[in-house]
Structures are given as structure tokens and as C-alpha cells.
């Protein structure tokens, strides 16, 4: 389980770095669609970490709740 957590953490870190790089590239591109791509990439830069945090929070709360039910 510990190895799986490390792999998932590395994948999340790589995804975030790629999002930052793509956002920077879209900011520099001079194209018709560059503005829309930049906005979508900028939104993803904020939305993906928030979504990951929400998933981790729900997992933690459900894990704590299942431990409480086992004690009763």
C-alpha cells in the first residue's frame, strides 16, 4: 500500500508540473485558439489540486467513520 501511495503521489506531482508547463506554453503561443486553451489550462491548474484534495478529504473522513463503526 505504501508503494502505491508513492506512485500516486509521483503521478500527481508530474501532472501538476505538466499543467504548469502547458499553461506557460499556451500563454506564449500566438494563435486563434491560444486564449481559450490558456483559460482552460489555467482553470485546470487550480481545479485539479482542489479536486485531489477533496478526494483525499473524503477518503480520510470515510476511513475515520469506518473505524468508529468497528469500535461500536
Describe the protein in words:
It is a single chain. By secondary structure, the protein is an all-alpha fold. The chain has one domain (2-71). It has helices spanning 2-28, 34-71. The radius of gyration is 18 Å and the shape is elongated. The chain starts with a helix and ends with a helix. The mean pLDDT is 86.
Q: What are the SSEs and their pairings?
A:
Layout: H1 2-28, H2 34-71
Indicate the overall shape.
Answer: elongated
Task: Give the biggest beta sheet.
Answer: none
Order of helices and strands: HH
What's the number of helices?
A: 2
Please bin the fraction of helical residues: over 70%
Q: Provide the domain count.
A: 1
Give a quick summary of the entry:
By secondary structure, this protein is an all-alpha fold. Helices cover 90% and strands 0% of the residues. The chain starts with a helix and ends with a helix.
Search tags:
elongated; 72 residues; 0% strand; mainly alpha; 2 helices
Amino acid at each position: 500500500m505504501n508503494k502505491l501511495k508513492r506512485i500516486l503521489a509521483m503521478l500527481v506531482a508530474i501532472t501538476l508540473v505538466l499543467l504548469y508547463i502547458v499553461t506557460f506554453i499556451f500563454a506564449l503561443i500566438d494563435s486563434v485558439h491560444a486564449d481559450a486553451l490558456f483559460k482552460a489550462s489555467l482553470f485546470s491548474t487550480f481545479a485539479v489540486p482542489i479536486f485531489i484534495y477533496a478526494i483525499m478529504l473524503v477518503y480520510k473522513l470515510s476511513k475515520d467513520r469506518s473505524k468508529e463503526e468497528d469500535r461500536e
